[in-house]
Amino acid sequence: MRYRQLGASDLKVSVISLGSWLTYGVGVGRESAMACVRRALDVGINLIDTANVYGRGAAESLLGEALAGVPRDRFILATKVFGEMGPADKGLSRAQIEKQLDASLRRLGVDHVDLYQCHRFDAATPLEETMEALAAAVRSGKTRYIGFSEWSPANIADALALTGVERFVSSQPQYSLLWRRPEKAVIPLCAANGVSQIVWSPLAQGVLSGKYLPGAPLPQGTRATSEAMSGPIAGWMRPEVLKAVQRLVPLAAQVNATLAQFALAWVLREENVASAIVGASRPDQVDDNATAAELSIDPALFAEAEAIVAAIPARAA
Questions:
Q1: What was the pLDDT predicted at 25?
Q2: Domain carrying residue 107
Q3: How confident is the model over 259-282, as a mean pLDDT?
Q4: Residues noted as catalytic
Q5: Is the per-residue pLDDT at 233 higher than 90?
Q6: DSSP-H helix ranges across 126-216
Q7: Which of the 8 DSSP states describes residue 291?
């Protein structure tokens, strides 16, 4: 496993991290989830990412159980706040940040998280109030650092312009060979201000594993066939996308890699990406994804891959 500095923090995070969206506490059974967390730690993954809203607390509770008894310095724990946890529990107000952070800590079974992230931007709360509440969370010792997920460049710039508050060290955007939107503005802005990317869906919900063949029945036991996990993958299951993805398989084979490993290595070619979050329902998937950290791939192969996916027709309105 390789490690990278997380923005302007003193955290060194594994370039592959383990996520829990749609999986732990929700779509993956307890024993499988526990086994995946143990395997992740065994292969050197130290960044575990979750959110209060994943399973309405179920993911955090499962991770709290899985990490119980593990020395605290063996893992870096990141969670998030914003999503609706109840009829009146949503957003980034001072009251919500205080309430939801305490609830997350209880479920996770720890006295602090290493990274507390704003899951989305809250236009209904003054930015100053949010940033002051996050600064108070850092001063209290309940989180070491703060980050955000899917904020616009304007939102990011506004937060960076504030004085007397804590500085963000991480950004969590969707980023993959099939979704390159952060490259235009978010990554350059963050790179110039000591903010690293921890990217989600680097395999486009598993489509970039190459397991879904155009025109073929969906493989049983995969995310696309799971009632609990299939929703977000639907947008990637277009025949033209699946056909292009199959054209990437021979490129990965040239470096003796799986397509998933190749796609993760492509994400990690970007220096501002500190870590790529993977989801896993089986320990062998953790092993396969972790191997991507070791790959060194000719940029010319990446350029070929980029040309292939750039030719995918735009989705009809």
A1: 87
A2: 3-310
A3: 96
A4: 54
A5: no
A6: 127-139, 153-161, 186-191
A7: G
In tens, the pLDDT along 289-305 reads: 999 999 999 999 999 99
Q: Which helix (H) or strand (E) holds 26?
A: none
Q: For residue 316, tell me if it sits in a domain.
A: no
Would you say residue 227 has pLDDT above 70? no
- Higher-pLDDT residue of 216 and 244 is 244
Give a yes or no: residue 315 inside a domain. Answer: no
Q: Which two tokens stand for residue 140?
A: 């209290």
Residues 154, 71: Cα–Cα separation, whole Å: 39
Q: How far apart are the first and last CA of the chain?
A: 42
**Angle between helix 259-268 and helix 299-310 axes, rounded to 10 deg:** 100
> 78 with 50: CB under 8 angstroms?
yes
Strand partners, 49: 78
Question: How far is C-alpha 231 from the geometric centre of its chain's CA atoms?
Answer: 17
* pLDDT in the model for residue 221: 64
pLDDT of residue 277: 98
Q: How far is CA 42 from CA 120, 265, 287, 290, 317, in A?
A: 32, 21, 10, 11, 45
CA distances from 297 to 253, 289, 311 (A): 11, 15, 22
Domain-embedded: residue 317: no
71-86: pLDDT as tens digits: 999 999 999 999 999 9
Q: Tell me phi and psi for residue 50, to 5 degrees.
A: -150, -170
Is the CB of residue 265 less than 8 Å from the CB of residue 295? Answer: yes
- Angle 299-310/239-253 helices, nearest 10 degrees? 170
Residues constituting the chain: 317
How many other CB atoms sit within 10 Å of the CB of residue 103? 16
Cα distance between residue 158 and residue 138, in whole Å: 20
Q: How many domains are there within the chain?
A: 1
CATH number, position 45: 3.20.20.100
